[in-house]
Automatic annotation (TrEMBL):
Chain ranges of the F-box domain: 71-117
GO cellular component terms attached to this protein's record: SCF ubiquitin ligase complex
InterPro entries: F-box-like_dom_sf, F-box_dom, FBXL15_LRR, Leu-rich_rpt_Cys-con_subtyp, LRR_dom_sf
Source taxon at top rank: Eukaryota
GO BP, one annotated term: SCF-dependent proteasomal ubiquitin-dependent protein catabolic process
Protein name: F-box domain-containing protein
Any Pfam family the entry gives: DUF7885
SUPFAM superfamilies, alphabetized: F-box domain (SSF81383), RNI-like (SSF52047)
UniProt key word Transport: no
UniProt entry tagged with the keyword Transcription regulation: no
Swiss-Prot/TrEMBL keywords: Leucine-rich repeat, Ubl conjugation pathway
Length: 411
């Protein structure tokens, strides 16, 4: 369905509905991956805002009724069907739908549709777009947008500190921010987001952005950088230098982190309690040995999918991290029963262990483990080749243990 752009030149001081974000030239502007026609006002990008579509006057209504004896097929759809359609629209198209009629206006601004704001394009005046959108979304809750949890503005080269500060001040429930490729943002704006959005879980930035966070947050104790695909060992080195108080750190799914990065993390020494390196394919026993040697107060380690980890790495962990309570080494094909024996001999405080999809683990390793780690409370052996007898053995010796398995004969 296409909508006419005949009224794009209208400008009003009212701000109930941002209809379009327009570039400075009359060429197509990409907003959220879609093209929209544009309008020119000098050489400046403007954000168009419009009043809700007004009801038709009596003569107009009579004329329309005479021309259309029945409703258009689309008008028959119930509200929930419209909402389902609108959930698939990018930000700019959703704004355009708000201009069709009063019913569409009310539906398009349903708070459930505004958990995500996605703006793209290197010619987009993104600062103004963010200001207009957040102003409209703040109408029901003055000054804050409680619905917005994700903002994607990657590649918006015209983004400045002003736009990022708008997000920080207006979106306190922000959980995900993607702003890679935005080169006109300073350290102060990144710090504004970090300090004002306490629920932030995913921050897609370059190492330079990580430097900014580290330099301004010297007391940072919990940092989760999962899926920060540009994170490198150099970024971790800078982080450890400026944030020596880190107790919990996740770099899972960061494909560029290697053993050198773990060597830097190991400099946190006894302060580190929680570490997730899941699916970091460049990590081997070498990096784990650094962590085991220096971070001897480690309580939690998630090394799921680290295929370079072997029994030797498990041995270093077991002998040095005696307070280890939770260990996930699922999908580590080189870990075998020999590693289980090392855990059994040293890790008496172990309470949670995941061996999911560890193809080299057998019932013998589980029996040795269960005979020594009496406090085990959770054991995941899904997709492992272990016998029914071994599972019953674990249950007898670790009476409080919940066993997650894929053996239909075991109850």
């Amino acid at each position: 369905m296409s909508f006419p752009d005949s009224d794009l030149s209208m400008r009003t001081v009212s701000t109930p509905s941002p209809a379009l974000i327009l570039p400075h030239r009359s060429s197509s502007a990409v907003l959220n991956g879609s093209s929209t026609s544009s309008s020119t006002f000098g050489m400046e990008t403007i954000a168009m805002v419009h009043m809700p579509p007004a009801s038709l006057s009596h003569p107009q209504r009579c004329l329309r009724q005479s021309l259309n004896q029945q409703e258009a097929p689309i008008d028959i759809l119930p509200d929930h069907a419209f909402l389902q359609i609108f959930t698939n629209l990018p930000t700019n198209q959703l704004c355009r739908c708000a201009r069709v009629c009063r019913r569409w206006y009310n539906l398009a601004w349903d708070p459930r549709l505004w958990r995500t704001i996605r703006l793209t394009g290197d010619v987009l005046h993104v600062d103004r777009a963010l200001r207009v959108l957040t102003r409209r979304l703040c109408q029901d809750t003055p000054n804050v947008c409680l619905t917005v949890e994700t903002v994607v503005i990657s590649g918006c080269r015209r983004l400045t500190d002003r736009g990022l500060c708008t997000v920080a001040q207006s979106c306190p429930e922000l959980r995900r921010l993607e702003a890679s490729g935005c080169y006109n943002v300073s350290n102060e704006a990144v710090f504004e987001v970090v300090s004002r959005c306490p629920n932030l879980e995913h921050l897609d930035i370059s190492d330079e952005g990580l430097h900014t966070i580290a330099a301004h947050c010297s007391q940072l104790s919990h940092l989760y950088l999962r899926r920060c695909v540009r994170l490198t060992d150099e970024g971790l080195r800078f982080l450890v230098i400026y944030c020596p108080a880190l107790r919990e750190l996740s770099v899972s799914d960061c494909r560029f982190v290697s053993d050198f990065g773990l060597r830097e993390i190991a400099k946190l020494e006894g302060r580190l309690r929680y570490l997730s390196i899941a699916h970091c394919s460049r990590i081997t026993d070498v990096g784990v040995r650094y962590v085991a040697k220096y971070c001897n107060r480690l309580r939690y380690l998630n090394a799921r999918g680290c295929e370079g980890l072997t029994d030797h790495g498990i041995e270093h962990l077991a002998k040095n991290c005696l307070k280890l309570k939770s260990l996930d080494i699922g999908k580590c094909p080189l870990v075998s029963d020999a590693g289980m024996e090392q855990l059994a001999l040293n890790s008496f405080n172990l309470k949670r262990l995941s061996l999911k999809s560890c193809e080299s683990i057998s019932g013998r390793g589980l029996q040795v483990l269960a005979a020594n780690c009496f406090d085990l409370q959770l054991l995941n052996v899904q997709d492992c080749d272990v016998s029914l007898e071994a599972l019953h053995f674990v249950k007898r010796h670790c009476k409080r243990c919940v066993i997650e398995h894929t053996n239909p004969a075991f109850f």
